[in-house]
TrEMBL record:
Originating organism: Marivivens donghaensis
InterPro entries on file: AAA+_ATPase, ABC_transporter-like_ATP-bd, ABC_transporter-like_CS, ABC_transporter_ATP-binding, P-loop_NTPase
Pfam family, one: ABC_tran
Keyword annotations: ATP-binding, Nucleotide-binding, Transport
Domain of life of the organism encoding this protein: Bacteria
PROSITE patterns the UniProt entry points to: ABC_TRANSPORTER_1, ABC_TRANSPORTER_2
Name of the protein described by the UniProt record: ABC transporter ATP-binding protein
MF annotations from Gene Ontology: ATP binding
Amino acid sequence: MTENAIEIEGLRKTYAATPRTEAKEALKGIDLNIPRGSIFGLLGPNGAGKSTIINILAGLVNKTDGRVNIWGFDQDKNPRQSRAAIGIMPQEPNLDPFFTPRGSLEVQAGLYGVPKSQRQTKEILELIGLTDKAEAYARSLSGGMRRRLLLGKALVHTPQILVLDEPTAGVDIELRNMLWANVRRLNEEQGMTIILTTHYLEEAQEMCDEIAIINHGQLITRDTTANLLGRLDSKTMVITPATETAIPDLPAGITATTRKDGTLAFTYKPRETSAEEVLAVVHNAGIRIADVKTEEADLEDVFLALTSNK
Ligand SMILES: Nc1ncnc2c1ncn2[C@@H]1O[C@H](COP(=O)(O)OP(=O)(O)OP(=O)(O)O)[C@@H](O)[C@H]1O
């Protein structure tokens, strides 16, 4: 049995030309394995191909070429089993306005062939915090409640893999926190593999064990979040001088700029230069320090470094 929740090999997708649009090669041969039990982030700028990958996983878009294996099942040979292993929370709320949350969950469970005795409707309503809205029409639910209901619908067949497509785009902080708390719980308590796409790098940094960066239909990189951040090997020490000061003479390996607020920002590579050496430069120049802080590279820096000029 493979250790991967998802195995993607040589995945290609070309959307056919229409009278109004040219053919579009959205995926140009993607190889990607996603380990079981991970929280995995799929990052990329608009139009990179993230939704295309997710829609192929969901069985909503037909691939042009390549192999997709979901939870050990080849998508082409075992379409039913591979679909059953995955639950998708889509970007757009696609709820029937005349269904209640309980009704929506029951219908969805029916679509997946979950027998009545095995349905988890009550537990799911509780998980998504909609127990007291169970009988309300979907059209009377707030935007946040609808999003939660979408998460619930993705869970009716207790999939091993949960895919969240831009789950927190445009949602408020309270709902975002609730969604993440739920997702973490599903991952920790049930070992559910979580795959998410997000534009918010901070969110990916905070949530994901591993990250794949996609651009123009190609995989740019895939690594643990910690390694990705480590790759930049850059740190900045920001010194607030006690009195206004110019930048002192600097040894090789340290660069500095004066920021608008009068602080001095020293940038160095921690693998080559220690914080102590930076402080010694400041000290030897006779600069008195009122305050000091350090800034680490974040995912945004990595992302820009990898996707610019490509
Ligand atoms: N149904 C379609 N027909 C033709 N072209 C499409 C179709 N769907 C997507 N595309 C094109 O394929 C490319 C990849 O789109 P995709 O939606 O997968 O990107 P994305 O990374 O999910 O972007 P976003 O973050 O904006 O959702 C884009 O150039 C897009 O215009």
